[in-house]
From TrEMBL:
Protein name in the entry: 2-deoxy-scyllo-inosamine dehydrogenase
Keyword Oxidoreductase: yes
Pathway: Metabolic intermediate biosynthesis; 2-deoxystreptamine biosynthesis; 2-deoxystreptamine from D-glucose 6-phosphate: step 3/4
Gene3D superfamilies per the UniProt record, alphabetical: Medium-chain alcohol dehydrogenases, catalytic domain
Keywords for the protein's UniProt record, in alphabetical order: Metal-binding, Oxidoreductase, Zinc
Domain of life: Bacteria
Organism: Streptomyces cylindrosporus
Amino acid sequence: MKAWQFTAVHEPLVLNEVAEPVAVPGEVVIDVKAVGLCHSDVGMLEDENWPRHGSKNPITLGHEIAGVVGEVGEGVTEWKTGDRVSVFLTFASMPGHERDGGYAPRMLARAEDLIRIPEGVSWEHAAVGADAGACSYHALVGVGEARPGDKVGIIGFGGLGQIATRIAVLKGYEVYVATRNQSLWPLAMEMGARRIVGDIRELADEELAVIVDFAGAGTTTAAAVDAVRRGGRVVLPGMAALETTISTKSLIMKQVTLAGALGASKEAQRGVYDLMATGDLSPVTETIAFEEIAAGLARLSKGGLDARLVARFGD
C-alpha cells in the first residue's frame, strides 16, 4: 500500500510503497476512513528545532485518525472488527512520532489507545476531534479551569480557535475572540462570541478570567499576560513561535498563572465527541483526497485557511 512518509527536515513528504500492517498481540489494524492534517506535521517538516519523538525513519505521519477496526490481534477482547474508533494520542505510542500514523489506508494501534466514536459523528469530525478538538477542550476546560459564567478569551480563530469558541459557548462561558483576520469576525459572532478584536489587549477592560492562546506567535502570549485580569490564567497550546518575551511586571504584579497545554486526556476527547454527537459542535472542515495530503500540508504551511483540512479514504 502507499503511505505518505517523513524522511528528513526540509524535505517534502514522500509517497512510499510500504507493507500492509498485520495485527499483533494487544493491537488492532485500523482501516483509516479520515485523517486530519495538523500544523505540527508542518513543524516536523520545516523546523529542525521542532520537538521529535522516537527514531523510526522514514515514518508515516498523521495522528488525527478515524476509522474502523479491520483486524484484531491476540488478547484483544474489548474491540471487534467493524468498531468505529479513533486513536488517543499518548507519547508512548503516538502515531506519526513513535510509530507509523494515518497518512496511509491502514495502520496499527494499541488496543488501549482506542476511543469509540459515537454514532452520528462523521469521519471528518471524528478525525478533527482526535487532536484539534480534544486539545482545545483540554486547554480550555482542563488546564484553563474555566467555569460556567467565566469570561474567556480565545486568541487565534483557526481550526482550534473555532472549536474552542464553540465549546466555550456550549459550556456556558462568555467568549471573546482576538484574531487579525477580520473576514472571520462574522463567523466568530455567529458561533456565539460576545466581542471580536484584532489584538487581545483591546479586551483588557473585560476582566477576562482565562485566555487561551491558540496562536502562540510569541507576541500573542505576551499580550495575553498583559490583558488577563488580576489572578487570571493564560494557557498556551499554540506553537507558531518557539520562544516569547513576556512582562514579568504583569505576570508578578497581577499574580497571573501562565500554563502550557500539551495534548489532551481521554475525558477531553470523549467530551468533544459527545458534543459532536448532539450536532451542537460541528467544526468547519475541508475534505481532500489521500493523494492531496502533501499539497494540503503545503497549503497549511502558507496559512490563511478558514477550515480544518481532512483527507478522506474511500466511503
